[in-house]
Amino acid sequence: MLNNIKKILFILVAFVSITATNAASHAHQNNHVNHQITITDPWIRSAPINAPALGLFMNISNNTNQEVRLISAHTKGYKRIELHRTIDSNGVMKMVKQAFMPIPAHAKLHLKPGSWHIMLIAPEQVPSEGEQVSVSLKFNDGSTQTIQVLVRKGGMMMQHHSMH
Amino acid sequence: MRAKFFMVAGAAILLIAAVLYSLSGSKDYRSLNAKLTAAQIMHNPQRPLSTFSLSDHNGDVFNNNSLMGDWSLVLFIYTHCPDVCPTELANMAMLKAQLKNKHAAIIPKVVAITFDPLRDTPKVLKTYVAHFDKAFIGVSGDTQQIDQLVKDLGAYYERVVYDEAGKPITLKKHEPLPDDAIEKGYVINHTARVYLMSPDGQVLAGFPTPHKVDDMANDIELLIKAFEE
């Protein structure tokens, strides 16, 4: 009798843990959502095959009650990866290296051309248009997110203007 | 007393005549300003472009004559630029497509001159600019010659290196790069104006950032029309 109860309990525990693992892996595949920091529309600008540096852009939403900081980005095949911001200072475009990117509580940081961007320096091989690149992002709350980034074309006006 | 009056009046008449002569000798494009949405008139016959001689991306001479006979859009870039310069070049490709869609009679050629000839040799530029449009022309050459053009067009650039602690140091105009700068890398802060050059090889107008291609296309058509009238 006792043995039977033990068996039933064992099966029950095994079932619950399998279900939980499935749910967890399902959530992981679900478009980079961890409910606290959400990444949308990540892209790398397609660049010439000899480009010494590439720009990586995305939207980062912070759904928590406090500021979150992106502290680094990692992907294989680059000499260095830096966080940058382009600042227009009386017509002089200055590229300023940043120690981190702040995303205020319940707000979104838009990494885009002419503004905040991640700089991928000295690529071993420049990825071609349409390729997917795996990038992991590290935040100051200790979390890390791995995202799939599409390589695509993009000028400053791409998002706002369609060609007729 | 009378003689003095005639001298002053004579001088005044001469001055007025000189002003009228200088105005009649060239067109006045300032009246276009009200219609232009993206461009700023830079036409100034009193200050023509200096004589320069550089190299295009095929290694052929690119000088004042290369800007004559056709309309061109000139911009300064450097290939280690991850953000502003590729955006500008992508926008120039879109601008050409926009002019084509509008059935514009004239589509200017695009000339990208490097701020960074040390790293941007003609060969490097050839691969780089062709990515955006096969017809784009990359130009490199002697630093002093490039600096003269930068000055003539009212552009500006400064090189920035990083010290051991990662602190940015802006180099002075003629300050040499540190020995390890190529290895460690450096960036360039720069203006990002696009210049419309008329077929006489002179600057007619400048387009400051942001480069809205629709507005630029409209202004280019207006400027070309005014020049050719």
Automatic annotation (TrEMBL), chain A:
The keyword Signal applies. InterPro entries: LpqE-like, Lxx211020-like, PCuAC_sf. This is Copper chaperone. The keyword Signal applies. It holds the Pfam family PCuAC. The lineage of its organism: Bacteria, Pseudomonadati, Pseudomonadota, Gammaproteobacteria, Candidatus Pseudothioglobaceae. Keywords: Signal. SUPFAM superfamilies: DR1885-like metal-binding protein. It comes from the Bacteria. Residues 1-23 form the signal peptide.
UniProtKB/TrEMBL annotation, chain B:
Disulfide bonds join C81-C85. This is Electron transporter SenC. Belongs to the SCO1/2 family. PANTHER family: ELECTRON TRANSPORT PROTIN SCO1/SENC FAMILY MEMBER, LINALOOL DEHYDRATASE_ISOMERASE DOMAIN-CONTAINING PROTEIN. Cu cation binds at C81, C85, H190. The keyword Kinase does not apply. SUPFAM superfamilies: Thioredoxin-like (SSF52833). GO terms for molecular function: metal ion binding. It holds the Pfam family SCO1-SenC. InterPro entries: SCO1/SenC, Thioredoxin-like_sf, Thioredoxin_domain. Residues 43-225 form the Thioredoxin domain.
